[in-house]
């Protein structure tokens, strides 16, 4: 477990999580309200990173499955020519090592829920990497300008390195 993290680096192999294609039901009406209110796209951190990338002249797909991956999971930002998938992860939902915490109520349910999200993120990273995509994860607390600088630098390096524009 990393400092400040509420979750282990790797979840237990025997973890009996509900089918990853179907999230577990909310543990309470309050939890259901929180999950309904949480946007899946166009969050403020995501918009700030997208605006910063746009100012740097980068053009990208938004809320898209990287072409050729056959994935239901969608990246927040896809730079096709550089074959980069960018995810802007919320600190709570994706268990940021600096800000992760478990709610006081229904702790075990939340632990399983958040571990499942972290496991899904790792699975997505592995599958995209195996398909030749570079996965970049940005925490919501990161400076969007610094994140955009990092993404733009990586995109330029990958474009120079022979990753041609995708036609799919």
From TrEMBL:
InterPro entries assigned: DNA_mismatch_endonuc_vsr, Restrct_endonuc-II-like
Question: This protein's superkingdom?
Answer: Bacteria
> What CDD domains does the record tag this protein with?
Vsr
The record's region (Disordered) falls at 1-46
Matching Pfam families:
Vsr
Biological processes annotated in GO:
mismatch repair
Q: What is its EC number?
A: 3.1.-.-
GO molecular function: any one?
endonuclease activity
What is its EC class?
hydrolase
What family is this?
Belongs to the Vsr family.
Protein name according to UniProt = DNA mismatch endonuclease (Patch repair protein)
Q: Which organism is it from?
A: Saccharopolyspora hordei
Q: What lineage is this protein's organism placed in?
A: Bacteria, Bacillati, Actinomycetota, Actinomycetes, Pseudonocardiales
């Amino acid at each position: 477990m990393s400092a400040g993290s509420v979750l282990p680096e790797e979840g237990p192999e025997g973890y009996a999580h509900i089918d990853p294609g179907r999230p577990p039901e909310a543990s309470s009406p309050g939890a259901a309200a929180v999950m309904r209110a949480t946007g899946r796209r166009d969050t403020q951190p995501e918009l700030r990173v997208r605006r910063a990338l746009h100012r740097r002249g980068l053009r990208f797909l938004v809320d898209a499955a990287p072409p050729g991956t056959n994935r239901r999971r969608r990246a927040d930002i896809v730079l096709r020519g550089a074959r980069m998938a960018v995810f802007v992860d919320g600190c709570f939902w994706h268990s940021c090592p600096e800000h992760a915490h478990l709610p006081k109520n229904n702790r075990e349910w939340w632990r399983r829920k958040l571990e499942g999200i972290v496991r899904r993120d790792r699975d997505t990273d592995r599958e995209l990497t195996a398909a030749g995509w570079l996965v970049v994860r940005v925490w919501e607390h990161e400076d969007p300008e610094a994140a955009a600088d990092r993404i733009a630098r990586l995109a330029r390096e990958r474009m120079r390195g022979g990753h041609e524009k995708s036609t799919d």
